[in-house]
Structure formats: structure tokens, C-alpha cells
Fold these 3 entries.
Entry 1:
Amino acid sequence: MADLHPARDHLGDREPAVDFEAVYQGREIAYGADDRRSDLIPWRLDAPQPLVVELEAAGDIAGPVLECGCGLGDNALFLAGRGYEVTAFDAAPSAIERSRAKATAAGTPVTFTVADATELRGVAVPGGFRTVVDSAMLHCLDADQRRAYLAGLRRVCAPGAKLHVLCFRGELADRLGMPADMGERGLREAFADAWTIRRMEPRRYTTGLTLQQWRKLTPEVSSVPEQDDTVTVDRDGRILLPFWQITAELA
């Protein structure tokens, strides 16, 4: 999942960026203009993202599968455990190291690799991927990076491949300062070159944060969930954030 409004770069108008390698090494990173620091990984569930589980149960996954920005590997391990051939990449070497260790411990075959989403070097399978899962990576990219990423996916996917994207939406995306437009129109335009959007609907993305942790990290955007439609809480007390669920098909 993207950074929750990390400390802004002080060099001109450059967008904020989070040091994902530091995150996965367990180091504290800065959040917000007042330099709050935390070693929490907001998107860490130690389980697959429920929306990804839902996609698999609905028959919307076909192998071989590519997961983009796989983080700690739980989605990839879940899909491999369901019998799919899975390749997963992340830009953070520490995330990939930890994911490989989990795969070895579980005896679950997943090809984990370090790669840049805008280049996808070394990310390929014979015949191309038939499904791509992007669980909260797209919104980390600025407009140019997003364009390069979607073009790269076209090169490594088979004709008719499906791309499932979960990304920030609406007012919360604006308030958290995502590096590119996360509105419906802007996203549809971004996909238009190579992908046909078959589904785009508002959903809720499960985080590993409690309400108390969420408020501590993002007091400038936090409020009581019952009085604000930006966040809600599930039965386990985890914050659910407003996301887009997008399914696009490669021509």
C-alpha cells in the first residue's frame, strides 16, 4: 500500500516519496508535515488482501499470474497455494528477501524478484502473463511512471490478459497527496492506450491499522469513521480505506 502522506521533499515541487526499503528493514520513516515517525507497515496483514481472495473465489484469476509491488508476499503466496504459477516483484530488496523466506518456510513455489515497475526488467514468462494483480502499487506512481508501467505490462502480458488494480480513490486520495490523479476520469485516460476497463467501482481496502494507529499517523485527515465516509472499521478493528477496484483487459 502507498505511503500515508510521508514527509514532503523540500526540493521544489517534487512529490513525496517513501523509502520502502527502510520500511521493510523495520526502520522508522517520517509521515506528515510535522515529521511523525513510525515503523508500522500500514498495508501489512500477514494474510492476503480480502479483495484479492474475493477475486480468486470469483474465478477472476488465471495463471500465470504477475503480482506488482508484492511487498511481503502474502497475496502471491495465497495465489500460489491455490495452484497458480506466480511471479511477484517489488522494488525493495528487503521485501523480496522476506517474501522468499516465507515461501521457503511454507513450501510454496513463487518466483520473487526485485524489479522497477516502470521498466519490468527480468519480469517475464513464456507466452506472457494472463493475470496481473496490483494491490495498492499504482497510486505510488506519478503520471509518467504510471504510463511507463502500464505500457510495460502490455509487453509482458498475453493478449486478453486481465489487470486487477486496487488503488486510492476520492477525497482521501486528494488529502493524502498521491503523486498522480486518482479520479475516475484521470485513471480511465491512463488505461486508454492499451487496456479496456471492464470494471471500475468503489470498494474498501483492508489495512493493518487500528483506528488509534490511523489517527496517530494521519491526524490531519482522520476523523470518527461513523461520521466520515473516508474510513470505516471492520469487525476485527482494522481500518478500511476507500479504494477503486479496477479490472482492465488487454486488447
Entry 2:
Amino acid sequence: MILQNEICHIEINIDETYTVDSVDNRHYDVTLNPEHYRHNDLSKTLSIHIGLYAREFQVALIGPYHSYDLDCAVLQDDILTVLQDNMITQIKITDAYLIRHVVLDCLGCNFAIYKVEKGYIIYGEIEITMLDLNFKKQWSFSGKDIFVSISNREPFTIRENLICLYDFENNYYEIDFNGKQII
């Protein structure tokens, strides 16, 4: 995933070779492990390259195994908000400092995070969740089956005033930003 603004350029990838507590890991300027994963825990590491105009950082962010590197982060000014399954971590990009870390109470895996006017929308396998700007759950919505598609339909789309969803059985849903089902 690539994000950029007038302050920085950020690239996020999965580091397939990283092992917690190993001396053979590639070098990172900062390693963040907010949930204190250990060597034998099932985890995944996101490699975050932060390129500022004056300097660069390589950050390792260790989190749950079901972490993905597409649509996993939001950049606002000098704050990077990263979703790793049920874990949200905010990093100040100017010094790679951990600002805030929360663990969500949710069902199933979470795939992506999107910034909307009043907070964040989390696209999950079983539920779509709206969080306020302080990451407090405002509402969640579940369908008849998981929100993945075996057809060529996009299972999750955010439009101007609504969220369009297809589940595994090809059921179609539209919900508004208050979590109310329209269709």
C-alpha cells in the first residue's frame, strides 16, 4: 500500500521473513510490538517505510496473523492509522512514535480501514463497523454470510452516502453511515 501527502511518502508491505525475537531479521529503525507478541505466537509484521523530506524511517509493526497490506492504513497530516485485524495502531510519522493502540471487540477478521467524515469504517469478514474518531464502536452490521465474494462482484464498496456489500451467497446489501440497512 502506498500513501502520501505534502509531508511524506509511505509504503506498507508484509515482511514475510520477520520472526519475533530473531537476530536474523532485517534492520528496522523502530520495532513496535504493542501486544507483546513472542517468538512462537502466530503473528505478522508490516514493514512501514516512512519517507519524510528530511529523513526516512523503517518501522516494523508486529500484529495479528490475519493482517493485510491493502487498504490497511489511513494517513492524516502527520498521523498514520494502521489496522491489523482487530488491532489499530496510530503512529506519529515525524518520529515513528506510537501515539495510540486499541484492540477492537469484533467478530471475524478485519480487512481494511477507511476514514469517513465522523470516524472510521472497518471492512470485516463478518461485520462492517463504524468507529468514532476515538475508535469507540458506534455500530456494526452483519449479513447472512461473510462479506467476501466468489463471483466477480466487489464485496465491499464505499460510495458517497452508503456502503454496498455482497456476501458469500451473493446477497446484496446497502447500508447508510448510521448502520441502517437500506436494501
Entry 3:
Amino acid sequence: MRPTPTCVALILAAALPTLPAIAADRIDRQTETAIPRTGNLYGLGIGVLPATSGSDELRSMVLPVIQASYADRFYINALRAGVWLVDSDDRRLRIGLAADARFGWEADDGRRTKGMQDRDFGVDVGPTLRWQTDHGTLNAQWGFDAGSGSKGQSAQLQFVRALIRGPGLRLNGLVGITWNDRRMNNYYYGVAASEAAPGRPAYTAGAGTQLQAGVNGAWPAGERGSVLFGLMVTRLGNAQADSPIVETRIQPLAYVGYGWTF
């Protein structure tokens, strides 16, 4: 049974010290998250992603649409939850902790994975950094699998730039590179000896990188609503693409949703 994705909340020690108000707040609200911010927003959406690792078939999932923050320190954005712990004076440089959802898959959903073990839904937890420049926002993150799945690690660099600003359509573009260690790649792309079958030899995936590029947008709809949408394309690295379960190294992810501000 596929785990139902839920937003993951980071629970920290209850009393954070009260920080002084900062007059020169120069945060670019549109690029502070990959999805343009529209205030505190709650709703539902549909995501479309590969059925299994490297599959050329797609599956759809109902996902929560959440953009929320508290005291400009705790936040939930899509499938990420986190807290900012250290700021520069103008808050353009922030360091904190974050948790990100990582989708698993059911082996029977893919042509090349039938008869294998399912891969579990996971949560990657670790430090994160956001640096806002005059040209866009640079995000850096390291995470480890906090569940019982891969027990692996990953690191990501991502650059977000506003492409369209306005009272109507807002559109961000992003590019990124992600490194996965051997455990992470092997869990999602490897084939254990017990999973080998005709046309599917055993395979051990090593560490490697993958590239991402995409766009995310927000469009006001109704008095208090917004339509959120996006398209991301990932190019798998060689350690992933050489797996016998991979059908195409170009992996899309798309979503559309509607949320209401409260």
C-alpha cells in the first residue's frame, strides 16, 4: 500500500528567543520559495510524476497545497517544512533546518519493476541555507533519510529567479543540481540479487548527480484564492540512468492546485 503523503512538521524546543525587529528587511517574497509566495494559503492539488524510478509511465496523486509561515520563522511550503535559526541583519542570508518529503513507489506500477520490493515514502532532514542576491535566490541543502528506507544522504544547490512579477501572474524559473550518495541512489535505482529477473539483472547504483530545471507560477483566482502550477524536469545521472529499471533519464513532474488565503 502506497503511503499517503503528508506535510512534515519540524518540532523544536518550545521557546525560541525573541529577536529584535529588523527595519531593513530586504527579502524578495516572490523568490523566497521556488513557488511564488501568496501569503498563508491552504488547498488541494494534483501532481503527476513517474510511476517508478526512471519510468516513462506517469501516475497522479492528490497533494496538499500549503504555503504557511509563523513569525517569519517556521514555515510549510508544499512538501517541505522548516524553521530558520540564524539570519543576517537584512535577512537575505538565512540558515535553518528543513524536512522534505521523498516519494516512493509500488513495484507493480512499473513494467520493469514488477516482482521487486516496493520503495518506501521517506523524509529527508537536514540543514538548509538561503541567500538572496540582486539576481535571484540561491538555496543549498543537505539531508539524510530519517526513515527506514535508503538511510542515504543527498545535497542540493538550487537557483530561483523571478521571470514574471505583477499583481496577476507571477512566475519563477529554477535550475538545480542534486547529489545522492550510494545508499540513496541504490535504494531507488538498484536491483538486489533477489529482485533480478530475465531482462532485469542485478544492479548496484553508485553515488552521482542529477540536474533539474523548471518553472513555478501563481495566478490570483477569486477574491481570496490562487491557482498554483509548475513543471519540473530532472535529468538522471549515469549512476541512475544505467539501471535496468530505468526507461528514460528525463523525468517530469507537474502539478496544479487551488488554495485559499486565510
